[in-house]
Design goal:
single chain, seven-stranded mixed sheet, 7 strands, globular
Length: about 180
């Protein structure tokens, strides 16, 4: 299993195996729940590694704006993470491809748009919605790679985007999805 990299538009896109809480990118994306209170999987790991500042900022957001809807994104400081910013996005609870794919694609696009509006030059994503939300890994990887590649082809100011995989199986799914997206 090797890291995979491709240049799309102005951006280097990398698929790597690693721990998103240890990435040296300016920002990381959190696969959050609507209440932004942490949980299991990536969400819990980011909250634990980032410390109480992330949860405090999330609670302030929810008090002011209400729960974060699926497909939308907000940000907090990175707390104790190497990344200075955490972009929280909520993916869909998987129902079927027709209902879930547009929301999942929007979660990736909203995160990319927010990163650019914050002047971020490097960003790391997990595979969103595949844990407790039940999205099939191969299908989610395809949606993720298509959404990210489509966004980057428009000439993003982001210099580096990572798709961070916690397991070899997720890495393989991202690799297959990237190969397919490059031939679309």
């Amino acid at each position: 299993m090797n890291d995979i990299g491709r240049r799309i538009g102005n951006t280097d896109l990398a698929i790597i195996v690693g721990d998103i809480t240890r990435r040296g990118t300016e920002a990381v994306v959190n696969a959050a729940n609507s209440s932004l209170t942490g949980g299991g999987g990536v969400d819990g790991a980011i909250h634990r590694a980032g410390g109480p500042a992330i949860l405090a900022a999330c609670r302030d957001y929810v008090r002011a704006h209400g729960p974060l809807p699926p497909g939308e994104a907000m940000w907090t400081p990175g707390g104790d993470l190497p990344a200075r910013i955490v972009i929280h996005t909520v993916g869909p609870i998987y129902r079927d491809r027709a209902h879930s794919s547009p929301i999942l694609a929007r979660a990736y696009t909203a995160s990319l748009e927010l990163a650019e509006s914050l002047g971020v030059s490097s960003l790391a994503f997990p595979l969103i919605s595949t844990g407790a939300y039940g999205y099939p890994i191969d299908e989610a990887a395809g949606v993720a790679v298509r959404a990210v590649a489509e966004y980057l082809r428009t000439g993003s100011a982001l210099r580096h985007v990572e798709l961070v995989c916690f397991t070899a199986g997720v890495h393989a799914a991202f690799a297959r999805a990237l190969q397919a997206a490059l031939h679309d």
